[in-house]
Amino acid sequence: MRRKSLLAGALAFAIAATGVGMNIQSANAATTITIWHNLGTTQNAEAVKALTSAYTKANPSVTFKLVDQPGDNYFALLQSAAISKKGPDLALMWTGLFALQYKSYLQNLKGKVSDAALAREGSLSWSSPNFDAKNGPYVMPLDRQFYIGFYNKAAFKKAGVATVPATWNELYAACGKLKSAGYTPLVYGNGGQSLGALYYPWYDASYIAIGQSSVSGLRDLYSGKNQWDSKANLDSYGKYAALKSKGCTNTDVLTKTNNVEDFIGGKAAMIIDGTWDTQKFTDAMKTNVAAFVPPFSDKPIKGVVEFAGQGLAMTNYSKNQAAASKFLEFMTTDEAAKILDGVGLIPNISGSKTTNPVNQQMLDFAAKQSFVRYPMLDNVLQGDVVDAGNKIIPAILGGKTKAADGLKQMAQVWKALPAAKRGASYN
């Protein structure tokens, strides 16, 4: 055991280094904080492990039990656990309407985490009632995330694709060259952030929406001002379905599970993914990988999905709220930011930096190229619509459902929602 004087000195150093006290628990108050997540083997899972390990190292009386739940029924498991009040102390939670949808068993963090700590974080509005940070957030973000495309520079060069495609037609043309050069132009599958049996369609759907509207226009899909089976959506999703029919994708978009490995291994030239896999790509591909904005529009898109898309939420039935709150406060420190950057993520803490060059490239889209920042579309749509889209949109790309039929189904799901969830205000 360390001598008490040495421990006190180490703690004083930690407090000075981070600028926020870590509130060491009494040696007689041993606590185990249970965290549920559905992160699988992503960088975000590594981040949670690293953050909890660092906290326990400085707070020996606090340990963590990390429970990796299946992605496809994660939220159902959380709801069931909330009924019996036998769920976790902290749960991985997506921001936006996901958090507000489940707020009946979540603890608002205002008053639980200090105002100074909350002020260090960005994007707190997206998990606060009415999307107003003054009302207090339900989620402490883990990192700043992007839905984004990645491409293999060597594949582009070999195929003679001189510039990154910026429109549908440019993408189709690039696909033809890449396929002729022996590559799968754009690979799909449920690898990476595996959230079910099918590939997760909202990375793509976000950019289809961006190609049509302003940030405020995303609300039109929520309110119904822009119906899912509108002429604009029929046109956009028809062109989306053409990605497969024109040979831009792998033939098994609905069943493939090793799409990430195909991209890393040089079999595929492009993949639509997110920042949770950036480090995996740069570790394997070094400087041969770069980011691009998915060009799902007739005109070049000047928007990018940049968002604190997920974090940890505290359950309102947790018996360890005091200890859990202190860990959430630790997540706002400079030490936590360094840990997040070290596993290849972009810290959400205001003023923090990223050392991964591809992550920095993403940040520069808005910071230096004047791209407009958009939220993740699935985080600002009704849960029933998102659930339906998880099946319908992949079926459109996979050729199992015609775009018109699939979008009609989406419109029917929206029309079946309670009136209170189809208005101009987010609920």
Structure report:
- Helix 6 crosses helix 7 (168-180) and helix 16 packs antiparallel against helix 17.
- This protein is globular.
- Mean pLDDT is 91; it is low at 1-28.
- The protein has helices spanning 4-18, 43-58, 74-84, 97-101, 115-119, 153-159, 168-180, 202-210, 218-223, 231-245, 259-264, 278-285, 321-330, 334-342, 357-367, 383-397, 403-415; strands spanning 31-37, 62-68, 90-94, 140-141, 143-152, 184-187, 268-274, 289-292, 303-307, 310-314, 346-347, 372-374.
- 41% of the residues lie in helices and 14% in strands.
- With 427 residues, it is α/β, with parallel strands linked by helices.
- It has 17 helices and twelve strands.
- The protein has two domains: 4-142 and 308-332, D-Maltodextrin-Binding Protein, domain 2 (3-Layer(aba) Sandwich), CATH 3.40.190.10; 145-306 and 362-421, D-Maltodextrin-Binding Protein, domain 2.
